[in-house]
Protein 1
Amino acid sequence: MDSLPDTPVISVIIPSHNRQTLLAQVLDALARQADVTVRFEVVVVLDGCRDGSPAMLAGRSDPFPLRIVELPGVGPAMARNAGVTEAAGELLLFLDDDVIPTEGFVAAHAAAHQSRPGAAVLGAYPPEPVASGDRFRLDSRRWWTAHFDGLAARGHRFTYCDLLTGNLSLSRALWEEVGGLDSQFAKAREDWELGVRLMEHGVPFIYAPQALGWHQEHLTTTPGSALRRAKEEGRSDALMALKHPQLAHLLAASRQLRRPNWTSRLRKLLLPRLGLFDGAVMAAGPKMLRLLERAGLVGPRRWLDRQLRLYCYQRGSIEALGRDFARFGGEGTGGVAVQPLDLDLAQGIERAEALLAERRPATVRIRHGDREIAVLPYAPAAEPWNAHHLRSQLVQPHVIRKLAPVLAASAFGGGVAEWDKLAALGMVGVTDFTAQLHESQRQWMRLVGR
């Protein structure tokens, strides 16, 4: 990271739209960064702001250089691209305007790049822990918490959809190599689409939990904004399936529109003609959800929420497709035939891990002698399988149930076929209480019967 003495090492790029108060809090937090040895600047892109954000920024005096870019409201993808054009740092750190960074945030990103040059560094931004009993709020927080728990899990295999631009850093050279964000993904999935291209370039993803920011989603996300977001996600997923057909079978838009049942055909017939109702659905939907929640009708509320999101999502998909709708609905799954790497656990797990580290295969067949244990599948825009993935896959319930008879035969003797007949081994990894209770009752009856 050699640079001129006055040149910032990192450019923190913050797109913002009418969030003056939150934006000021983000900048205040950046001004309190503990490690002042990391030179950084901040580039704020005001995208169609009609609040007091320009005046607030003009009146600030911060310990870092502050650059301001004003745009007429082009969406976060183009706003981030414009911020990069204005930035001077050789590392680009993207931060949302509702994510309050903790002390050491910038330094943690810098340290991650020093330890792994050329990587895309994914920072953490879980929801601010604010108490709420609102079901929408709880569901939203559950999604965000599960996302970051997944990134932190041992043996996690990174894919394109792990990449989110709310807290992300990568080098300028890498950004220019892959071409930045695609502006056609104007308001959603621009980060996932960038993740596809980074994965195809073989760029490693690393998770940096120390680069922590608190997401103020309780202030910026509402049931109404969630429906608007669902429509934008549908639009972007349809475009993603057209641009990256190898991903089509993974995206909800293409799966839903290809279903051969009568409900799917009816939706495909009616949805293109229902555009005039979008505004009414997005306005009335949240009110209906609140009424059902106040009445304690949890099941109907959950059902209505799914239907509203599905409507908005599919309306976005169909609007984006236009003339490509017929072709989109008739495409195949984009499946790819990949020769798996054979791993024999009978030769030892260390040997298997060494082979994975050496070969980095796209798919793996795991066996123990002649017995097939599991297949680690091919996935487009995902990192190749590596040594650190293996053990976490072996402890998955569906895998351990296949492996358990082999291990039991090795440890206690007898044939694998005999251990296969032991029903209790089929319960390994089962967490359902009722299933466990029934199995314990069956074992007790067999014991008493003897």
Note: The longest strand covers residues 205-215.
Protein 2
Amino acid sequence: MTASPDELVAPLAGADREAVEDRGPVGAGIAPRAGVIGLGMIGGGVAVSLEARGRIPVVYDIRPEAAEDLGLALAAPTPAEVAAVSDVVLIAVVDAAQVREVLRGTDGVLAGARPGLVVVLLSTLAVPEVLDIAEECRPFGVALLDCGVTPGDQAANNGMVAMVGGDDDTVRRAMPVLADFAKKVVHCGPSGAGMATKIARNVLTYGTWRVAHEAAELARAAGVDPETLIDVVEEADPQGSTLFTWLRNRSTNPEIVEQAGPQVLRLMTKDLGAAQELAADNGIVVPVVDVARERAAETLGVREAASPADRTEVGLQTMDKVYGAGLAAHMPEDRSPALEMTIDHLFGEVWSRPGLSLRDRRLVVLGATAMLGRADLIEVQVRGALINGELTEDELEEIVLQLHYYAGWGNGTAVQAGVNAALASWKNGFVAPGDQGSSGR
């Protein structure tokens, strides 16, 4: 059976009981009333912070002595009894299985909850688990907030940052409790957003630990004490601002990325290459360095310049994609400057860009070509579209109709002639460039 507030106070005696009663309703001290389940480093620290602010939390832990060890005033025998006398319940257990047990057990939070209860999940779980648990709470009229917190060792000192996911109204209702244990509360977005932010934060932490390990191994291989490396880095960048410099440029200063990106890419590739050489000479495995160099352009958000040979190869491959397999094989070895530009730049750098599909680019070219009134050029584009299955006969009819109005009746007539010629050869089983005997359909 769920304990009443008076029953929770009853076990206390003397000065302890008077202190609690003087502060107001059980589990409150200051409204809204708070409960904490799980008194490890995070949960215990949160409960201590709440009590220090006068918001006396009702607490529960599987270890009966945990509350007493932390000097907390009110301990309940079950999670259900915490929920019964709380407006906001904070859960800080290890994993999703423990969260569900605390919520759904015979004496769990949901068994004692009243509609309107807010459950704040402090445990770090996968985002899909968070969303599933939020759905499980909904039929009980209980709202779930996911709340990643960091750094955990500051929980008892009101020193953490809380990253919250959930709807605006629920965050507003829980905010007084959140603000009593966190130095900063950040509403990151809808359900799951707080946990996603915490997970991303963890990636930065663990990822930089690995980076620091690889850097220290390289320094040690050259006879440098890792402590010396630490001193140099801390002296050069005491606030650690370098970590986010480029990420911040990508989000707020795209013009810097565009202008400086290629030069930074060259330097990044060169410097990481030197790190790889040092690692290879000393038998050191540096997977982060390898990935950082391989994906440098992606990291910086710049388009990596291809070598002339690469551009030509991409251009020839793209020509075959645009107009049919085998066309590239018919390109002469001795090419004019105009043909080189066509292959290397038009097809190697424009048609090959990922921003538009080949079909979309085809439609753009058809519109532009219509303005020239060149039926022969229209035929070339339509043949490529038919080979690739990009346009049907019905769609071509609609294109012809629209271009009559936008390109003028004379140019529209040329478009119609080019489409008719391509369709006639298509229906007669034309052979795509270099296609030996296939109809190209």
Note: The longest strand covers residues 143-150.
Protein 3
Amino acid sequence: MTYTPRHIERTPEMHPLTWRMRDDKQPVWIDEYRSKNGYVGAEKALKGMAQEEIVNLVKDAGLKGRGGAGFSTGLKWSLMPKDESMNIRYLLCNADEMEPGTYKDRMLMEQMPHLLVEGMLISAFALKSYRGYIFLRGEYIEAAVNLRRAIEEATAAGLLGKNILGTGFDFELIVHTGAGRYICGEETALINSLEGRRANPRSKPPFPASAGAWGKPTCVNNVETLCNVPAILEHGVDWYKGISAGKSEDAGTKLMGFSGRVKNPGVWELPFGTTAREILEEYAGGMRDGLTFKAWQPGGAGTDFLTADHLDLPMDFASIGKAGSRLGTALAMAVDNEIGMVPLVRNLEEFFARESCGWCTPCRDGLPWSVKILRALERGEGQPGDIETLEQLCRQLGPGKTFCAHAPGAVEPLQSAIKYFREEFEAGIAKQHYNNARAIGGIQPNNLLKQRW
């Protein structure tokens, strides 16, 4: 059956992030951006609003972080010190998009670089920050080129640099390309890397809001989060909340999508509350011919698998959380019937084990251990107790058991795959091991493991 991609008419009222995008996918440069109400929100903020008023506006709008955590952006901003003597402050944009299966920020930076520049300008004014850094994934070459050109254009137009729009506010914006570490998605590891240090997470407290980059107050926000700010300033709280009215408690829109062996993989700007089934079937076109749907991850490699029974859930933070997973980046991955869960999870755990910074023992040693067991199961050489050991590792690497959230996120796909597809893991245990265990008097699996490892 031939699939015809659904036509989407992007409008300023319903698609604040993407309505300016060109059909040919070329970047929107400053003249075109300004002709489409670009920098209107920035001018309104800088010329007519107090900094605290902007912070409260963003808080009242209900903007949540779009990097995966879903924390209130306005509340995060309000944690910055009020003391006027703290005259050096930094705004950092987390553009180190290394979550497997996620590519939403790349689209914004490559096609709408001025939207990010404007979002950072407004945010910096609200936070009284004189310098901003875009910490960019090093492999995003085109995004780096486009962002640097946008910064040059904005500087030439008097929208960056000294005395912006004649308001006396100064703001310098710099693109900093990273060296390729997934752990830099954790904000304090990002700060360490920016400073030229090893990308290890920092102990908290102190939190970045009080002592971040170079010991100064620092706020770190995701690309998509910052790109929401201009429209909120331009249109207000009621409009922003109304986009998803009746569909979700979360406000605004979200870049959502599906990858995997679907007919039309991609990313679309949709209101919170749109169901996963609607995205999969109407936008992504469903599974390719000859394949059937098996499972999905709602928002990146570090989220729990869900099944077809969960496809009618609204795509928002609360609904996906209640189902036992996380919305994450909201770019879902579809798993089809031809893909085995053991090799799939083994591939994910290899990535997470490789990207561990090695700072804490549970993560450094526990993730490679899970990979060894999964490889044995994949070869059909598993032993009794392997699955139980994997489950124990998931508990020992869970929230609160490690220095940062890397390991808890890494074991989410593992624990959920065992939960929903345990029989595939059991199939990897060699039959002779069961016979051997019975022959030697029911030896406990843990003792077998001690001999093995």
Note: Residues 437-453 have pLDDT under 50 and may be disordered.
Protein 4
Amino acid sequence: MSTTAALGVDPDAAAPRAQAENSRGRVVVASLIGTSIEFYDFYAYATAAVLVFPALFFPNAQDPTTQLLSSFAVFGVAFVARPLGSILFGHFGDRVGRKTTLVASLLTMGVATVLIGLIPPAATPGWTVLAPAALVLCRFTQGLGLGGEWSGAALLATENAPAGKRAVWGTFPQLGAPIGFILANTVFIALSTFSSPEAFASWGWRVPFLASSVLVIIGLWVRLKLIETPAFRKVQEADAVVAVPLAAVVRTSWTKLISGTFIMLATYVLFYLMTTFTLTFGTASTRPETGPAGLGYERVEFLWMLIIGVVFFGMTTLASGPLAERFGRRKHLIVVTIAIAAFGALFVPLFAGGAVGVQTLLIVGFCLMGLTFGPMAAVLPELFAANVRYTGSAIAYNVSSILGAAVAPFIAVWLWSKGGGSPVLVGVYLSVMAVITLVALALEKETQHIDYNGHLAD
């Protein structure tokens, strides 16, 4: 990527000025609230996709496995929409600004989530086809909003960060993942505990989706108080806003789009295996009438095990920022990705180790998740110049979501079925994806010391 220094000033001079306008506390809350809502919404859907959506929206499927795969297929629709959202919101993020675009993406995502909670089941007269179609439409709209959400939150944090603190500040939006998970699943646990199975299937599952409106309102209130980031103000002052960011980023940084996509691949696969697949496998019957066998845990029991693992996810996300600053993004991620590849080989012995083994698997997996996910809010944006950064980082992040997350639950269930109820092939799948990410990291250069605010794409 060819770049030129903008304005001939100290590239970090804008950071202190930005802090006077956007305080650290405001940046933390504004970047964290959006990704918390993002992951709350997605965890709520992922949990419902396992627990109630197969029978609720796909009652005419020939068997429970087909119902589950149909539910996961709709789960993947949002990931297909995310690259389109990254182009749409990336365009405005690089032309209009980070703040306005973040407000629009949050509204899009939030409205779609609330509407999911209002869709009648397929058994409702006249809704046999309309119910699953409405679910698909809402998931697609969610995906559009999500396509612009993460990148904007990452830029909000890193473009306001002081010198030498981008990876640390970049962990602020990443913390939204464990927070959103805990919020969503705590709601599901409460509903499962204090309502009957019939009440949960009838109306209880709707509560997490409808309740997200409260988080959206808080997020909008915080974001409307923001000041534009210093990096984008420099783009405006240098009269370097590009007319078509997509064309510009493809022309100047197409290799970075490819490397960024595959750098994120193992993170996405690990993320959705540790959440969606483990819940599916953990709560499936040990002696099913149809489909592969699982571990037979009660739903609430396994959700608590997941929440314990996610606490470690949050702690290692925070730890990853200082580690990425000390050792460099590339070295840090190479070591963690090697560990992820090795972790795939532990699926069978840990899953077979009883409650202790399963909990150990969840803790180790989520620790690796935090260590790889935490630095990504700095790593992906650092690949791109300031005037195409929103579009570039959003496309890399969201194209990777198709390759790593949209298909991960579907592939995992299929491999689990082919393995005769054993997760051995699922572990192999994770290890192979980690090797692909290692190749991408080996081919990319360290980005820690780039002139983050002062370079523009030619």
Note: Residues 1-20 have pLDDT under 50 and may be disordered.
